[in-house]
Amino acid sequence: xxxxxxVAGLLGGLTLDQKAALCLGSDFWHTAPVPAAGIEPVMLSDxxxxxxxxxxxxDHAGIGGSVPATCFPTASALACSWDPGLAREVGAALGAEAxxxxxxxxxxxxxxIKRSPLxxxxxxxxxxxxxxxxxxxxxxxxxLQSQQVGACVKHFAANNQETxxxxxxxxxxxxxxxxxxxxxxEHVVTAARxxxxxxxxxxxxxxxxxxxxxxxxxxxxxxxxxxxxxMSDWGAVHDRVAALAAGLDLEMPPDLGFSDRAIVAAxxxxxxxxxxxxxAVSRVLRLVLRARARRPADPDPRAHxxxxxxxxxxxxxxxxxxGGVLPLPDAPGLTVAVLGEFARAPRFQGAGSxxxxxxxxxxxxxxxxRALPSAALRFAPGFALGAGPEDPDRAEALAQEALRAAAGxxxxxxxxxxxxxxxxxxxxxxxxxxxxxxTSLLGRLAAEVxxxxxxxxxxxxxxxxxxxxxxxxxxxLECWLAGQGAGGAIADVLSGAxxxxxxxxxxxxxxxxxxxxxxxxPGEEGHVRYGEGVFxxxxxxxxxxxxxxxxxxxxxxxxxxGYSGLRVSxxxxxxxxxxxxxxxxxxxxxxxxxxxxxxxxYAGAPAASVARPPRELKGFTKITLEPGAARExxxxxxxxxxxxxxVRREGWVLEPGEFRIDVGASSRDIRLSQVIEVSAPPxxxxxxGLATLEEWLADAGGxxxxxxAIGTGPDGRPRGILGNPELLKIIGNFPLSTLAAFPxxxxxxxxxxxxxxxxPPDG
Length: 763
Ligand code: BGC
What we know:
The protein is an alpha/beta fold. α2 (16-22) packs across α10 (259-268), α13 runs parallel beside α16 (486-495) and α14 (392-406) crosses α15.
């Protein structure tokens, strides 16, 4: 029997009340059982970076703890691996742990775009770029579902801030939605076929995501072919019947005795077609059957910890490394001052619904001692962590102790970062700075112990500003919140056991006000206007020509790479729907150590008729090369990769003409570039009465027809406005139907009717 038959069989035996009940959970984490029909409840559980299975009582915020699980790097860290294969491995491990705990669906990954560095939940999101976010999320989903555990891709859509997140309307134009905020979801849905999608809390253009029919049905199902279940974010439903009609199958947690009754009443009164209810119930039943069909798992926590450590190591981003201060040599007599409370009390994960109870935690100080057995380590906490103002005498004593530890040391490794209360689900940040005690310690190290080079190791979920202090550091290693293996991974990278290979998945701005969304974040009076449009992240910094501290895609390793031999070739055609642009280049390891390079392919449309970002990521690949070795990398771009979303034409539009293909090591380290000419059917204006005179004249068919209709005078010169170039300049951008009302121009209502089609001119 197929799943479909089994679902139909179960559905046929259910009463209206039972069907309504199945569209809500039965408690905070379970779907509803129907014992009489043999339908058991299945469990849903956070979260994307490690399982957060809450034992009995649910508290939502994770305060009550959860069963031990491997804490993998958070999304902001893992994204910097630029490695969908690694994301798949992490997803599979997470899936195995979920299966062992009898979890049907893991509530993740979160693929919302980092619109502003202030978003409190940026640690849970992958990137400012939809292409990168989509590829990595597809890897995670694929891995998770390889264990017969469903993914739940969230939060659909435009949930890019925490301020007023349950009510705010994200006011965003369709082009921006299509080009920036939807493609990561689109890619995951079409490439990895997640079992479920979670709607966002917020409104999109005035309508709650939970009852947004265009989003949940027309785009998600009709356009992208999604065949899974849509569930609400926890508490996102406001009108259960409207949500059901819009395409929301499951309400979580259930509003028992209210939502179910509302559904029954709506069906009974004929306000909701029972077929709509049946469809939602079928999707819930399919999920139950999918979860039923699997075998138990028995994952090895030690192997998963090793994976967490490897994943962390792949995700760390070496932002700078002046004079090759890293890697640290393990030499007898080498003295390393290890400063900062985070060295012994690491911050490796975020708070809220993705908070995990880790199976074990690597402590950086211990791991560093293990990685550099011949070196002498001197530890000093340097500053205190925690909320509230610090006692100034204590702060000074801590700083003095750190300065003493650094004096005479060969190098000082400073573990800095955001304290846990600085960022979380539920609120946004108001600045992007490190705590003052930490930056002041750095300043004093530079001024008072100038002979000791400083290596900064950062722990933060969302981007922090480095521009006020990074001149005081010889090296900066950005670790994000890299999970329970972060401590080991940091030691591996600092000691050179692993060459760093992470690349930034988001821009590190010099100043917060430089950010494209700065003036429109987080909105007011219930609305946030996405005024920067498609110019999000590097797209905006590049378009404005603004300097940044570290650009999107940036990251150093312990070797160097040369790029050569760019070749761009085209096959197929845009008209035929099979245009394929192949980009090939040769990459060589020109240094003395093996290393990994993330080769990035960007496209730009310098001649576009609409405003477009100077370059957008369209391909990437992470390769490993031994010293001296070379390899060819290839990317294939399609027409869609070069297209923009046209609001007027309600679709993707590829304009014929010039495009620039860039291949490089970051969005601002372009090593190879080529301009190509792409042919595509010419864009013809929609010639209605509301098309302007200029648009008519520029059209290959419309121009001659209009000229002929207006005709020539006895002297052979064009009549009316066509014989008056000065006037044409001034009112050429008037719609044809408007000009018909003006005397003496030669454009008449009859001409407009004949050329623009029957009936009154309507545009
Ligand atoms: C969060 C979701 C999470 C859910 C369940 C919500 O507040 O937005 O991401 O999955 O709670 O904990």
